Amino acid sequence: MDGQEIVDVSKLLEGVDFIFSPGGVTRMVYPLIMRLVRDKVLNEGHWLSLNPYGPRQATLGPVRLYFVKLEAEALKSYGTAKEEMWKLLHGVHGEQPFSLLELAWTDEYAYYNQYNRICSETALALDRELDFDLFYIHDFQQLPMGEMMGTLKPKLFRWHIPFNERAIPPEWSGFLGRFLNAYDAVVVSSKSYMETLLRRGYEGRAFYVYPYIDASQYGTPTKSDLQQFADKHGLDKDDRVISIVARLDPLKGHDRALKALANVVKTHEVKLLIVGNGSFSSSGRGLGLSKGEAWRNYLQTLVKNLGLEKYVIFTGHVSQKELECVYTLSDFTVLPSVAEGFGLVVVESWLYGKPVIVSKAAGIAELIIDSVNGYLVEPDDVPSLADKMKTLLENPSLTEEMGRNGRETAKLCTLEKGLEEEKRIIEEVVG
Amino acid sequence: MIPLELPELTAIVTQLAMVAIMLLVTAFAARLTSSIIRRLLFKAPPLINEQISRGASIFIWLVGLLFIVNQLGLNLDLLLLLMGLAGVAAIIAARDILSNISSRYLIGSFIPFNVGDEVQVSSFRGKVVEINPVASLLLSEEGALTVVPNSVLLKEISLNLSPYASRRITIPVHVPQGVNVPDAEAEVLKLCNKYKNKLDQRFPPLVSVKNSGQADVVLELVLLSAQPEKRNELAAELGAKISELMEKLRTSPRK
């Protein structure tokens, strides 16, 4: 499709012509636009995003996608700056840069800025042609757009990653504030993030909306689907199953789960499914970074070193149908992230009545009532994680009850609930 | 009544036709000029746009009037005298305005005030919310708006209470036609990185688009000097380097 002008996605065949593999943000935003169009809040949606390899434009029902392209050097530098920024905002400090301010003085940041300028100019050009009513900017990598566009039309920004006091020191307030304050309103994913946002230089209207998913998209797999999935991954009918559904990334804390599993398997027969691949950014097709592959290699070595070969299954990328099989076959799921904007996979797990063990570093920790709909653990507390795993494996009735409670909590994160909140915010911002 | 001869009648009709044509041409020229000015100044406040285009239109009509009077063979001297006197009166009346307009161009460079700064002029204190060609507007904490004619800022001692005013460097960057703006901006930022030891590193460079005309795009680069006394020196050197950079981008083949 590379080089083509406009592609109508509805004429393509999923799995043959393209793979639908949305990340957390797309999984939320795409159904949001579709519902807003269906409810006549929007006539149409115009979506601008980075896609170095796709066509120039694509149509997907009432949504028109505009793909921004960067030259090879700019793409690589942008990717580096974005990854560094992402780590810093998640409180992960490795080698330099140690702060956002240091990052902003690098040549890589100049390309991050360039990408945002291209997006801003493109959005303004489209606005001149189409006369938009609202600019809804998503995620930290597009943060400068509000300030760069300069237009007085309503601008809303959704910050999807954590906004933690621990990760974002007061010294960054000026830098972040100059971009954030260019928006009419900023939406974050939890109440605690909103409180930090207001303490870190943002002076405008702030909202929090829990991320949401379209529950109607999650069906019940047939017996044959389940058998096919089990056969594919070598699962037996009686196997107890724990799952981690997360992209392959050190911040997802798969290593903690493996270390805990090494303890659990001493007394329990159980399989751990590691579901997911590296992100687009960390794939060879994406920004040319190899984080996902490197993390997979590390985890595979760890599995070997811990003697867990017969207990751990790496499924790689799974289709929606296979994902439904994962949740159905699991006893419970684990999200041991070191840092996590929210953690919609927890909601997915709840939709299937499966409880969760969640790291306190995840935004969704705010919705976990310990021992009621899941367990909370400190991200580095491997023994506690192992204990909670054992508790759930040993008490099927407790597991079932917590799963039922989780299903109730999941209602806070459904598309219907999110839509209601989003409509309210849009109405307030657009007027 | 003296009957007119045919040649005389023809001359009068021709003259009247000429006057009519000149009136039409003047009306068209005034309208065209007004319309061009409106388009050129589309980003200016509507009231200013309206006044400038009206002024230009009046000027065109006055010139047209002179030609018409000349065409009719009337004495131009008295009309020129009247127009001259009116011009002098207008200049005297506009003296203050002109003084304010010329002062406007010193604000930001020699008078370090920017929109958003907290300033004090005489006994008036407030945040600068607008610097227009005639006056600077200060908004006090109580919500009162003080209008300070720009020329007053040259005559009166004023205080800029914003902590970084003494170190702020503002450099206009003219991106030539044909040069890609995002590319130019990236190169400017990379250039600034080379000077980072001379700059306050808590405040990374900020670039914004100030004017996006057909000929070129004007960006504004804002930086903070690490030392106030080096501000002008740094601004001059960076300004020169940026001009060289833009020239290089203009002449280099586009990727």
Describe the structure.
The complex is a heterodimer of chains A (431) and B (255). Chain A has helices at residues 24-38, 72-89, 100-103, 107-130, 145-149, 173-180, 191-199, 223-233, 254-264, 291-305, 320-329, 344-351, 382-394, 396-409, 415-430, and strands at 6-8, 45-50, 57-60, 63-68, 135-138, 155-158, 185-188, 205-208, 241-245, 271-275, 312-316, 332-335, 356-359, 374-377. Chain A has 2 domains: 6-213 and 415-430, Rossmann fold, CATH 3.40.50.2000; 216-412, 3-Layer(aba) Sandwich (Rossmann fold). Chain A is an alpha/beta fold. In chain A, the strands form 3 sheets. Chain A has a 6-stranded parallel sheet with strand order 11-10-9-12-13-14, sandwiched between helices. In chain A, strands 1-3-4-2 form a 4-stranded mixed sheet. The model of chain A has no long low-confidence stretch (mean pLDDT 91). The termini of chain B are far apart. In chain B, the strands form 2 sheets. In chain B, strands 4-3-2-1-5 form a 5-stranded antiparallel sheet. Chain B has helices spanning 6-40, 46-71, 76-93, 95-104, 150-155, 181-194, 231-251, and strands at residues 118-121, 124-131, 135-139, 145-149, 158-160, 168-175, 206-212, 217-224. Chain B has 7 helices and 8 strands; from the N terminus they run ααααββββαββαββα. Chain B folds into 3 domains: 6-93, Helix Hairpins (Orthogonal Bundle), CATH 1.10.287; 109-160, SH3 type barrels (Roll), CATH 2.30.30.60; 166-251, Alpha-Beta Plaits, CATH 3.30.70. In chain B, helix 1 (6-40) packs antiparallel against helix 2 (46-71). The longest helix of chain B has 35 residues, at 6-40. Chain B has 255 residues and is of the alpha+beta class. Chain B: Belongs to the MscS (TC 1.A.23) family. Chain B: The chain crosses the membrane at residues 12-32, 52-72, 78-98. Chain B: GO terms for molecular function: mechanosensitive monoatomic ion channel activity. Chain B: One of its GO terms (cellular component) is membrane.
